Description:
Binding site for substrate: 101, 240-242, 291, 406-408
Helix content: 25-40%
EC number: 4.1.1.32
Largest sheet: 8 strands, mixed
Active site: 293
Organism: Microbacterium trichothecenolyticum (Aureobacterium trichothecenolyticum)
Number of strands: 31
Bound molecules: guanosine-5'-diphosphate, phosphoenolpyruvate, manganese (II) ion
Radius of gyration: 24 Å
Protein name: Phosphoenolpyruvate carboxykinase [GTP]
Amino acid sequence: MALADIFSSTSRTAAPAARAPRPGYGVRPAVDGPGLAELTAWVDQVAALTQPDRIHWVDGSAAENDALLREMVDEGKLIKLNPEWRPGSYLARSHPGDVARLESRTWIASESEEDAGPTNNWIAPAEIRETLNGVFEGSMRGRTLYVVPFSMGAVGGPLSHIGVQITDSAYAVASIGVMTRVGTAVIEQIAQGAPWVKTVHSVGAPLAPGQEDVAWPCNDEKYIVHFPDTLEVWSFGSGYGGNAILAKKCFALRIASVIGRDEGWLAEHMLLIRVIDPKGRAYHVAAAFPSACGKTNLAMLRPTIPGWRVETLGDDITWIRPGDDGRLWAINPEAGFFGVAPGTGESTNVTAIETLWGNTIFTNVALRPDGDVWWEGLTDEAPPHLIDWEGKPWTPASGRPAAHPNSRFTVGAAQCPQIAEDWEAPEGVPLDVILFGGRRATNVPLVVEATDWSHGVFLGSTISSEKTAAQEGTVGELRRDPFAMLPFCGYNMGDYFGHWLNVGQKLRFDRAPRIFQVNWFRKGDDGRFLWPGFGDNARVIDWIIRRVDGQVDAVDSSIGRLPRVEDLELSGLELSSSDLDELFSVDRASWLAEADLTEKFYDTFGSHLPAALRAELAALRYRLQRA
Ligand SMILES: Nc1nc2c(ncn2[C@@H]2O[C@H](COP(=O)(O)OP(=O)(O)O)[C@@H](O)[C@H]2O)c(=O)[nH]1
Ligand SMILES: C=C(OP(=O)(O)O)C(=O)O
Ligand SMILES: [Mn+2]
């Protein structure tokens, strides 16, 4: 493909294709049933408010997806990458002011403020509905309203949930098609009366007659609003990731966490893997790490120790339900990966690189002159000439990143070379291990085992992560991110801690997953990581699995159970004994200071904080003071 062809399609002012209605637009699928009336009434209602030119019921077919992508290329909204390097793949460039989730513009509009709790932005439903009615009025003029029925989890599965997203963004439709299971089978379920969640999204950029569209329509004013009492999401003004693919963070975490509270299950910000030991035995591990703390990397782990294998099940969201057998059963409700591109390379996550061979929508990465993509960390050396994520010429001397630091890839999970064969099994997999982790330069050891479920919930509730490496060591500069759910829990986080404790009560004591805290990011005084991380994290998993199997003892410490050094598989690693000591050292004074911060944090929940967690904190202090 000629360079000129690629770049000519990047113009932000390319004229949209003719606006005449196309065959298929406005046609409802030929499905009938008692549940359909509510769906059509809702679509009519949203259409009356937003006043689109056309309505398109998305059927999820490959032909429909192809047509949508072609149309976006024609309109200058996507750049088709050179199929020789990246078949079936596209680059989207967002508006420079619309590049990430926006926590400050995200609300939980529960009837009661107390239900949202101290960690969420709360707003009264009546008040925000008035605002939303104002901004959504006529917001889809000149555009197509897409009706996108989606299932999280296999369609009809016992742990699955369905929803519908209305959106005026074709980019969102294409992304939802990768990240979820879209299709008329979902409408059939709705018609049969299955419960479903209503989500509405508009980029908030109506077009006047004859007005030319831009490559990335959006609005300066943004609202991402959740109504947990009526199971609805309304999102306005942003086209990006979690603000626009409402099935993901908005539904599968914030709304689903509320459904899970009411129904007795857990919607978690966790990756999910199957670990296979040298004897061929399989174990299932779920792990909660805050954003940019290694979920996708661990989900795609390639062990450096012989005989071990990891199969990917999910990299971001896990739904977990107690089974009749007293175990916890888990599914990945998503169908794709929406991963951070920068830092993803052959030497860190070769599985991701192999996954991205084609059929991928890239957003805000750099474009190579040969029509392929590039981002910082893809290769050690940057190409001499690129077009950066804003569409400007770039060279290594430009002094700015070529790809936006939050640039992303959107790709189907089935393309992952180590995806588990049964990754879509509707009943899920039984959990053996739960990990909690964050990015901690100091204090937190490489791995600690919880003494029991309640101690494990305590560890989850105290997860914190350094905002940047430059602030290492100062506990006051940590961001609290309990269970890695701070931005994603749809209700009072104190009640959420209580819910975790309750779920533990439903498990058979010998079948509850064992809980561990891990930290790949501890640093030495010289600022370098003490632990090699990535593939070598399998060495930590190896110890964890042998603990679960009862093959090794552990050492009790004030903060939990630590490995005996001789039980760690460290052969072939260049790790000095002083680094090893430092990886597991527990500094009493720092931990007492951290306990004070935990108490302050706990106090913000008032009576919603479970007594069992206060007791865990008191026990921790007692052990530290006695040590
Ligand atoms: N030092 C170190 N960095 C890691 C490790 N795992 C992931 N990272 C880095 O952490 C960042 C975020 O990783 P990613 O897996 O995308 O995190 P996610 O947002 O939680 O899915 C990337 O820059 C990774 O290279 C590790 O074990 N050690
Ligand atoms: C996945 C998203 O964000 P993050 O990785 O920061 O949680 C998102 O924007 O949907
Ligand atoms: Mn990720």
